[in-house]
From TrEMBL:
The keyword Cytoplasm applies. It comes from Sphingobacterium ginsenosidimutans. Its cofactor is Mg(2+). This is ATP-dependent 6-phosphofructokinase. ADP binds at R21, A22, V23, V24, R25, R155, G186, A187, E188, K212, K214, S215, S216. Pathway: Carbohydrate degradation; glycolysis; D-glyceraldehyde 3-phosphate and glycerone phosphate from D-glucose: step 3/4. Homotetramer. Catalyzes the phosphorylation of D-fructose 6-phosphate to fructose 1,6-bisphosphate by ATP, the first committing step of glycolysis. Substrate binds at T126, I127, D128, R163, M170, G171, R172, E223, K247, H253, L254, Q255, R256. The keyword Transferase applies. It catalyses: beta-D-fructose 6-phosphate + ATP = beta-D-fructose 1,6-bisphosphate + ADP + H(+). It holds the Pfam family PFK.
Amino acid sequence: IKKIGVLTSGGDAPGMNACIRAVVRTALHKGLQVTGIYQGYQGLIDANFKEMDTRSVSNIIQRGGTILKTARCLEFKTTEGRKIAYDNLKAAEIDALVVIGGDGTFTGANFFSKEFEIPIVGIPGTIDNDLYGSDYTIGYDTANNTVIEAIDKIRDTAASHERLFFVEVMGRDSGCIALNAGIAGGAEAILLPEKETAIDDLISHLEDGAIKKKSSSIVIVAEGDQNGGAYYVAKKVKEKFDHYDTKVSILGHLQRGGSPTSFDRVLASRLGFAAVNEILAGNTRITVGLRGNEIKTTPIEEAISNKEIKLSPDLLEMAEIL
Ligand code: F6P
């Protein structure tokens, strides 16, 4: 292997730049050439390539987003699209790929590397923390910190006005951010995609709080909550429970931006470094992740098929009690 390509795909996550930097600098240090592929898999199809040197990743470790841009590419889901991508890789003499992203990114990588025998190592980068094989994904810690900052601010105004706030956080299929935010933000209740919460149960819980003279409350609702999101839940609660003035706050895409935390920068650097070493060791169709405090690999197929839920029963129980 003489040259590797690196790309970011799917939703951006803080720490992706730190990871790109680690991939580029590790590869250069080991005598490889590195090509940056712009806009994820779309860039493979469009041959949107740029050679990277050590300076092209200067001053990015602290920046959110991804300097390589990202996209959710439908064409790469077709065999024809992947054939164009492969021809472009061959023409550019790229021998292996490092892909940074989430579930969709790994699914594309799995198809591609099977069809065309191209070595690929995946790095888990998504704020959702919903990938098997790594205790934490790049961006999750930063998103949690962003969310908690927002909740603390909302709590100030909730308490001052004696209001009930429904705060919606990201996570179409994953309740990791919601559970973490609920615990760290001292929420009254947490509604998750993975667990059904009946509106009537939520109401009786809020009534208990009112009886205990709680003057304000915050309910965290994950974007993919089974009831249908914060606006819907707020409307349904209001129909039967009007003890408080009720407000809804959707945190939205601000959760994906911002400077990565120290944890995410170090995690991203470790995973980028490990990915290049795995390619050089001849390993392919794997992902690298952090388990315990060690870097471990997982077959990419397992990373996408194992839907083990990361919400530990201990945490769920604790959240209810506290
Ligand atoms: O996968 C990360 C994520 O932020 C999810 O939590 C969210 O549901 C989704 O991306 C939003 O995607 P988009 O920015 O494409 O609307």
